[in-house]
Structures are given as C-alpha cells and as structure tokens.
Design brief:
Length: 918
C-alpha cells in the first residue's frame, strides 16, 4: 500500500473519530417525520431546528477530579466529577494529569494510575470520547504511558518551544499500535515547521488549534495561517474554542468562532469549557450552552439586550387602536419585569404581551438586570369600542323567552346589554382577535307582551379606560308562543295502539291496548326538511348550542311551523335563523323549505319487515306521511364540567326509544332474536298523547353503537340499529385528519408548522397501525385538500363506518399548555373516548413526560363533552382526539418526530381494541 494512501486513511479515521459523536447526536435530533405524502416537512420547519455543536469539557490538572480516593471525593463545587460529567451535555472529555511524569517524585502511584484508568473507563461507558493531554514541554514527560490507557486520542501540548525534529524523535519512540489511537499536536503562532511530522507514516494525526476568545479577526488569521498546511497534507485541524466563564460578550463570540472554524475545509470545531468553572457556572455561560445544546435555543440569545420588535428606543408609536400587542426579546437567563411584576418568558427569551391603551400618551417601562426600556405610545381613538352585535336582525320572541346576545368589543371593556329598563351584564369569552373579544349576555323577555313591545330595540354599552360607547342592537318583536311544543286538539279521533308485544323500560313485556284523542294541527305554515340531515335545537333560545338528546331529521321530514327566531352562535361564530316546530324544537331555516299549510291528518305506522343483516337490525316501516321523530335512551345522567352541561361519567342506557309524532296508531312485531344489541322491541303510547314510542331493550347496559334512518324508493322509513363488531378485523374505521387545504388549522413553531399537515401524518400513522392489526381503515381525505365538516360526516355515513375518529392537534393562547384530550358528543361515544384517552394518557405520562414528574398531572387534559361537528354523528361512536398541543414548542417538536407519531398511533389503536373488548 502506498504511504500517502496510509496517511489519507489515517486522516479519514481521525475525521470520523472527531465527528462521529456529533453526527450521531445531530442525526438523532434532526430526524423529521413523514408529511402527508412523501415523508418531508416544509423547509421552514426544518430551519427551526438548531445546529448542535460538538463540545468538550477540559479537565485541567488532577484537582478537578479529586484524584485521591479513586475520584470519588467531592471537588470544590460540591459535585461528584463522574456523576457531573456523565450527565452533562458535553460529548468529550479532555484530561490533563500528572500521570505521565517519568520521575518518581512527580509521577502518580500505581494505585492512582489504576484509579485514573477506572475513572476513564466509567466515562467511556457513558458514551463520552476521552482524550489525554500530555505536556511534552517538561523534561520528565513520558507520553508512552498515555498509550496504555483505553482512550480515543492523545493530545501533545507544550509544543511551543519544540522543534519539528524533536517532536518527530519523541513521537517515533512512543510504543504506538498502528491505528489504535489518534494523536494531535497543539499548534500556536510560534510553532516551527511541522510539515515533516504531518507526513509521518502509519500514524493517525491531527492538529489542535486553540482559538482566541477575544477577537474573531485573530481567530480567522490563525485559521488562515494553518489551513494551507491542512489542505496540503490532508491532516485535519480541530479548532478548540474556549467558552468564556464570566464575560457575556465573549460567550457570544465563542459561538461565532465555532461557526467560523466550520467554514474551513479539513477543520472542525469544538467548544471547550473548564470543568471547575463550568460546575461553578460563572456568568451562567454553561447554563446557556446546555440550553442551546439540549433544547435547540440559539446560544447568542443568552446575551441579547432587551428590545421590542419593530420599535426604536426613544421614539413614540402613533396609533388609534385600543390595545398594543408587543413582542419583547431579551436574555433567557434573567427575568424581565413590568410594573414590578415578573413576566413569563419563553426559553428563547421571547415575551408576548397585550397592553391596554388609553387616549393620549401611554408610557410602559420594562427592565432586565440594569437595562430599562421605555415603550411610548400616543393614542388617538378613531374606531368604536363596539365592533359588532349579534343577532344583527330582528328577534322574534315569546313571553319569558331567553335571548343570547353576543357583542364583539375591545378586549378588557365592561359590556352591558340593555333591554328597555332591563340591564344584563355581559361576560367575556375566550375568543380574542385583533385586540377585541366576544362578550355574551342572556336577555330574558318579560312575561308580558306589553313589556316586550316597550323594549323596542336592544342597546349595548361598553366602557373602557374611562370611555363609554353605546351602540344600537336588533329590534325585539313579539311572535307568540314560539317555543310551544304542541297545538291543542280540535277533534275526538281515537289513537289505537295495536295489540302487539310492548317492551317497558324495565325490560318486561306487556300487551298494550290504549286510546287517546287524536290531535289535528293548525299553524302558520309547514316546512319540509331539504338538508340530508337537519340538526334540531331546544325551544328556548338560551339553549342555542347543540344538545345531545335532540335528534337530527332526515330529508323529506314534514312539520308544522309556529314561530321564527334568530341567535348568534358563539361556538361556531355565526348567526342562525330558526323556525320553531310544533313537535317541540327548532330547526335552521336554511335546512328546510316552507310550504303552504295543509293539515296532513293522522299518521299510522305498521311494520313491513324486520331482519338482522351483517349484525345490524333493519326495520322497514310503512307510514302515511313523513312525520318528525325523536330518539332517546335511558337511564342516563349528565353533569356540568368544562363550561358544558352534558358530560357523562359513563354510558348507562338500558333501552333506546324512537318517538313518532302526529301518529294515531302503530303496530307490528319486530324480530330481534338475531340482534347482538337489542333483546326485544315494542310499541307504546307516548305520554304527550300525540305520538307513539318504539322502544328497544338492550341486551347489556351501555352496549349500544348507533342508529340510522333513511327512506327507500318505496316511501318506507328504514330504521337500522347498528351491531357491534366482534373483533378488530370486522371493524370499518374512518379516520378523519382534521383541517386541510385552505384551512391549515393551528400553527406551531412561530408558523413554521401547519396543523393540517401534522394531522394527516398522525392519521396516516394510525391507519398503518390499525391495518397491521387487521382493521379496515379509510381516511376522509387522502391529500391536503379542502373538505367540509359535513362532507366528513357524510363520508362516514355512506361508508357505514363502525367507528369515526377525528385526529387533531390542540392549541392554546397559553403556549405552556400541554397534554392530550379526547372529546365526545353523544353519550354512547363516551366509552370509545375514554378507552382511547386512557391509552394516550399512559403514553404521555410514562413515556413523553416520564422524566418530568411535575408535568404528569398537567398533561391529563381529560375526556370531555363538546359539540364539535365531527362528533355529532348518530350512526356510530365518533370522537375527536386532540393528540398534543401544537402551540407548545416541546410538544410540537415531539409531533414532528415520526417515532413519536408511531407511538401515538399505537395508543389510538390500543384504545380502539380496548373499547371493542368491553
């Protein structure tokens, strides 16, 4: 083999040695997970990942290790050296001791040498690279001893006064094993000709150059001096950059020097710190380095002066806004104060703050250490305190009816809604945008038409920073008993419940033979449902949000209209117009079509057929006309939590019931013998005397999985009770990656990460995991395209899904908010939500936050009721999984890691399997 080739091979080995640990650490921290399609996230997301530098701690002299006693004694900083070095963020340790003195008086004893070897061995087991420093300037230095230690390399220091010939002579005398260890020569400005040594045969060699910590220019000059030698000889140069221990400016300079060194070919940098000074953490420099290395924080930010984005100190901002939103930057090592209160600072030193402004001159003073920063704002209000009032058009109300009014006004204002002589204080919601937020008030119409007429219009008064502003709201119009559940009967026709077997709530059967007067209805108008599924609401306007026991109506259903109303839905951020129906609920005007009034007469129902197919119980009913219906189950209790009324501890239903309105008779037997869900079925008269009930007894308490109602081409109503899949391989699961297309959802890492992309990556991982276990899985979207909430639900219905799971990332204005949650709407979805949440929480507590006990309880967000659109399915259990908080930087980075997404996918699959096993 040619000698020059040997040198090249040796140099390559050295370069691998120097960069190996760094490469492993870099790869480990730089891994990014798959996106929706090809496994790559956006370039902007990649740029958020800070480059981690290889670093070393320099242990100078034996006292740093308390050498006596086998390195177990405490040093001056009160830390055990081995424990400290093992747990530190440094990947290398450079050791300089007296172990290599040739004289007996200066050398370590055999016992201490053995202790040193043992210490280095333990460090190596911790994954640290070990280099021994040998000072060859001393006459009694014998660096042959260094090669008896199991280390990664030998550093020859003290070369300043030595000639190249002397170095070569001593180098050749050392008993070196070929390729066993790398050897470095320390370079400085007075070092003589080293080219001869650079070409020594079969000896792995590199140069060590300690850069100045005072001047970037001097560092550059030193690199330029020795770099040509490295290029000619292809010998690597390790640039050792000392980290300043007390001068903050020098610490920032150290980072610049490391990057400068890395810009030269054949040169790699290492950031050095002295062990004793690091343990004392002088100037908090080591804290800054650790934060940079372990959490990706820009090292230079440790010493950033206090500043405000877009603001020049000493100037004044001119505005007409009521609020100023600031972003401050400073050192993340020290607290920032505003009006003697410490502000919450992110780990990169950033602070976001909203300040209420008053008309005229505003002055705000911030401080960090000795630095004071004054923010001046001159305000001339030009806009109104109140931006919007909803409802925006006339309100049709009845006596005693409650009206929900939503006001968009300047955040921090005091808002009152006036209704004639009445006053209603509005409460602030969590929805904020552009310095404004929503306020809601519930206004109760008086129990007198005369008093209602005296209201005329609602008005809203907002007070803020000494200013008061009034704005006129919608007109209030009396519309009669808009919420009336039924009209009075005007004839005496009889309701006959057929002599079929009926099932009571206790599961016992009896024969029903019952008669009641039939009610004929007169009203203002009629309506026909034109939407595929029309949601229904309670009669009272204050209950405008969705209620889980109100039943959606399918297309073609007919009902009588008795009134009209309008309300602003703050949950959805839209105004809704309603018709009140005689059957006792409201429906959105856009979901129905008004038709001329015509008395439909009585309805009669008979069972055309019933059978169990593929586990589902299907019943076909003959009817005279498309009467409205409702669905209920029991017994079931609810409780209030998370500002919602309909949370359930468990799903406890023993029966399910369908109520058909305007029906005079119903009959026909239903075969439930093959159903795994219901044990019997029967007809009974409803207590309202205007409807009949079809009740199914469940075979097992809480074991119910959904229903569907359609109308076939023969005009029959088809009622299907879903069966439970026996195992995962029998289950069709629809996964819904939240958002998509123009709806990116929430953002993370200052806008670098888009929720819709993460949602798809999570859903794709869950699909892969579930299919591995045998399930059939479909996605509501297969790319980053727009898809409406209704389209997602329609897809699940059309596919006859057994389970529907929508996958999202949570978000909060509080960027420290963390953890996982699962949401449900209908009580029968609670068991699925609970099973998935149990597995997700275990993952977070036992894996993601296993090393942070203080966060174990914080990450338990809960299993929560919420009327999200995608959870409002009645055909199958449907839940929404908020995997983690994209607005929390740590959790966002966690989600970017494909291995963590795979863990989340496994937790979701485990939860589904646990649910099916119940």
């Amino acid at each position: 083999m040619k000698k020059s080739n040997i040198v090249i091979i040796s140099v390559c080995a050295l370069i691998l040695l120097l960069s190996g640990i760094f490469a492993l650490r870099y790869i480990k921290t730089q891994k990014s997970g798959p996106s929706a399609v090809n496994g790559d996230f956006t370039e902007s997301a990649q740029k958020q990942r800070a480059k981690k530098l290889p670093t070393a701690v320099r242990a100078v002299e034996d006292e740093d290790f308390s050498l006596s006693g086998g390195f177990a004694e405490q040093n001056e900083a009160g830390e055990d050296s081995l424990a400290f070095l093992s747990s530190s963020c440094f990947d290398s340790v450079f050791v300089k001791t007296k172990a290599f003195s040739a004289s007996k008086s200066g050398s370590l004893s055999a016992k201490k040498q053995k202790a040193l070897k043992s210490f280095l061995k333990k460090l190596k087991k911790q994954g640290k690279s070990i280099y021994l420093e040998v000072d060859i300037s001393k006459k009694d230095s014998d660096f042959k001893k260094a090669f008896s230690f199991d280390v990664d390399g030998i550093i020859l220091t003290g070369t300043k006064e030595k000639s190249a010939a002397d170095i070569c002579k001593r180098f050749e005398k050392a008993a070196l094993s070929k390729g066993k260890k790398s050897v470095a020569l320390e370079l400085d400005s007075s070092f003589g000709e080293v080219q001869e040594l650079a070409f020594k045969k079969d000896k792995p060699l590199f140069f060590l150059l300690t850069l100045s910590e005072k001047s970037e220019e001097k560092s550059k000059a030193a690199l330029e001096k020795f770099h040509p030698l490295c290029e000619r000889t292809e010998v690597g140069l390790c640039a050792a950059v000392r980290l300043a221990d007390s001068k903050k400016a020098d610490a920032s300079l150290a980072l610049k020097n490391t990057r400068l060194a890395d810009s030269f070919s054949f040169v790699s940098s290492r950031l050095f710190c002295s062990l004793s000074k690091v343990q004392n953490d002088l100037g908090k420099c080591f804290s800054a380095v650790r934060e940079y290395l372990e959490n990706g924080v820009d090292f230079s930010l440790a010493f950033s002066p206090l500043s405000i984005d877009g603001y020049t100190e000493g100037s004044a901002v001119q505005t007409g806004e009521h609020k100023a939103s600031l972003t401050l930057h400073g050192s993340y090592l020290y607290p920032v104060y505003f009006e003697n209160e410490e502000l919450e600072t992110s780990k990169d030193g950033k602070i976001t703050l909203d300040l209420a402004l008053k008309n005229g001159k505003n002055e705000f003073v911030f401080s960090q250490c000795a630095k004071k920063l004054t923010y001046l704002v001159n305000v001339n209000f030009e806009d109104e305190l109140i931006q919007k009032i909803e409802p925006g058009s006339a309100l049709y109300v009845s006596e005693g009816q409650k009206i929900k009014v939503t006001v968009t006004a300047v955040s921090g204002a005091s808002v009152t809604v006036r209704a004639g002589a009445l006053r209603f204080e509005a409460e602030k919601t969590t929805k904020e945008k552009d310095g404004c937020c929503e306020y809601t008030a519930t206004v109760t119409a008086p129990n007198s038409k005369v008093e209602i007429d005296s209201i005329g219009r609602l008005s809203v008064v907002a007070s803020y920073n000494g200013e008061t502003f009034t704005k006129e709201g919608p007109a209030v119009i009396y519309s009669g008993n808009a919420g009336e559940a039924s009209a009075k009967p005007n004839n005496t026709e009889k309701v006959t419940i057929g002599n079929n077997v009926s099932n009571n709530e206790d599961g016992q059967t009896s024969t029903v033979s019952n008669t009641t007067p039939f009610r004929q209805y007169t009203g203002n108008q009629m309506c026909v449902v034109t939407a595929d599924y029309a949601d229904t609401w309670t009669p009272q306007i204050d209950d405008d949000s969705f209620v889980p026991y109100y039943t959606p109506l399918v297309k073609g259903t007919i009902d009588y209209v008795t009134g009209q109303s309008q309300v602003y839905d703050s949950e959805e951020g839209i105004t809704r117009d309603f018709f009140s129906l005689t059957s006792g609920r409201r429906v959105q005007t856009g979901d129905v079509m008004l038709v001329p009034y015509a008395d439909q007469g009585e309805n009669r129902i008979s069972v055309a057929s019933s059978e169990t197919k593929n586990g589902d119980l299907e019943i076909r009913l003959n009817m005279n006309w498309e009467v409205p219906y409702s669905f209920s189950f029991g017994p079931q209790s609810y409780y209030s939590a998370y500002s919602k009324k309909f949370n359930v501890s468990a799903f406890t239903a023993q029966y399910i019931r369908f109520t058909f309105y305007y029906t005079s008779s119903a009959g026909g037997a239903i075969d439930t013998s093959q159903s795994s869900v219901v044990s019997s079925a029967g007809w009974s008269a409803d207590s309202s005397q205007t409807a009949v009930n079809l009740t199914f007894a469940l075979r097992k308490e809480g074991a119910y999985y959904g229903y569907s109602i359609t109308r076939n081409s023969s005009g029959q109503l088809v009622l299907t009770i879903k069966g439970k899949p026996k195992k995962l391989s029998d289950t069709l699961i629809v996964l819904d990656p939240g958002h998509g297309g123009s709806d990116g959802g929430a953002e993370g890492l200052s806008g670098a990460v888009n929720e819709s992309v993460l949602n798809f990556a999570l859903a794709a991982a869950a699909k892969n995991e579930l299919e591995k276990r045998g399930a059939r899985v479909l996605l509501t979207r297969t790319d980053n395209s727009d898809i409406t909430l209704e389209q997602r639900k329609t897809y699940a219905r059309n596919q006859n899904a057994d389970l529907f799971v929508s996958i999202h990332c949570n978000a909060s204005v509080n960027t420290s908010k963390l953890g996982t949650a699962v949401y449900y709407y209908r009580p029968f979805s609670k068991p699925l939500a609970g099973a998935i949440y149990e597995k997700m929480l275990a993952l977070f507590q036992n894996d993601f936050y296993a090393a942070e006990p203080s966060k174990r309880s914080d990450c338990a967000v809960g299993t929560i009721y919420n009327p999200f659109s995608v959870t409002r399915l009645e055909e199958c259990p449907s839940v929404l999984v908020e995997t983690a908080f994209i607005t929390n930087e740590n959790e966002c980075r966690l989600l970017l890691d494909s291995s963590n997404r795979d863990k989340i996918a496994s937790a979701i699959a485990d939860g589904i399997e646990s649910y099916l096993a119940q």
